[in-house]
Design brief:
The protein has 109 residues and is an alpha+beta fold. The chain is built from 2 helices and 5 strands; from the N terminus they run αβββββα. Strands 4-3-2-1-5 form a 5-stranded antiparallel beta sheet, with helices on one face.
Amino acid sequence: MNFLISPAYAQGTGSAGSAGVSQIVILVVFVAIFYFMLIRPQQKRLKDQQTMLSKLANGDEVVTSGGILGRITDVGETFVTLEVADGVRIRVQRGQISQLMPKGTLKSA
């Protein structure tokens, strides 16, 4: 009966240290990819937005995050007054300005 069952021999185990190192290397590569694909571009966009907001001046034509197009008539520390039509002015928070438009955009709109 023993001739049907072959004997099982223990095999040598691989180096446990090399498997751990390769897992750490893969983890570091994933973190680096995550940083360069998601975190870094977001920080750059935020920096560009802050720079644009700090340079707002009277006469600039802007678009708010709600899609309102207007010309800046007054710039305060936290609020900006926009003229959206002749004699129609609204105040919006400075942080809600999403885009600076080229001069003359308001006339063509």
